[in-house]
Amino acid sequence: MTARETSGSAGAAPGPAPDPESALARLADRHAAGYRSVGTMAYDIIRDAILDGTLPPGHKLRQETLAELIGVSRLPVRSALIQLEADGLVEFHDRRGAVVKSLSVAQAREVYQLRILLETEALRLSMAEMTDERLERLRELGRVADEEQEGAGFIDARTEFYAELYDAARHPIQWELIEQLRLKVGRYMLGWRLVGNDGHRHSHGELTDAVGAGDVGPAVELLRHHLEGVRDGVLAMLEAEPLTGAQPAARRRRGGS
């Protein structure tokens, strides 16, 4: 899976890269209503901005600027950045302050090696305890995830699907480890969809059908094949255009898992 779906029209000339601060201000406006805690709001806005590429890897996160754009004081922004550091999306440097975390090819390869080991075992355990009710829930979540095209809705739908697939309620520590690994390589790639050179795109429904058939071997191999394909696509992208703050926003595409 080395190709990526474009989010614009084929052949269209790329426009100028959007200013991250302007894009963040628009994102903050969409989040402004419905929050009881300014800390939660600041965290959600900055996290979404990192995951959808508004704030690309390597981008310096100035607390004063973020606070002004979001419309809060520096304290909730500082707390949000500390939480995002724990999530693996932000890192602090002595001289540069907080920046969106970048990822090397070697790190990405190691993350996917661990993901394949952990997630295939998680699927084996989950299938041994599968019920008709959980399978039906999984089918519905798979339909929702396949209908979502990109962005925060796609990320949320996919997270719910895999939480059910791996039986997160029964195995919370295992699920926490899986999510941490996904976030380490995710960045704004979490909102991308990778497609193969043959045009095939991973279907959550396809995986659900394999689980529903009850044969562990083929289901595990399908999951392994998907993770290996995503790994190869991510590595190809990192080698071709390293994830740094200098990457033009116009070149970002959607895909991934």
From TrEMBL:
UniProt keyword Secreted present: no
Cited InterPro entries: GntR_C (IPR011711), TF_FadR/GntR_C (IPR008920), Tscrpt_reg_HTH_GntR (IPR000524), WH-like_DNA-bd_sf (IPR036388), WH_DNA-bd_sf (IPR036390)
UniProt-listed Gene3D superfamilies: GntR ligand-binding domain-like (1.20.120.530), Winged helix-like DNA-binding domain superfamily/Winged helix DNA-binding domain (1.10.10.10)
Domain of life: Bacteria
A Pfam entry, by short name: GntR
Listed PANTHER family: TRANSCRIPTIONAL REGULATOR, GNTR FAMILY, TRANSCRIPTIONAL REGULATORY PROTEIN
Stated name of the protein: GntR family transcriptional regulator
Organism (species): Agromyces aurantiacus
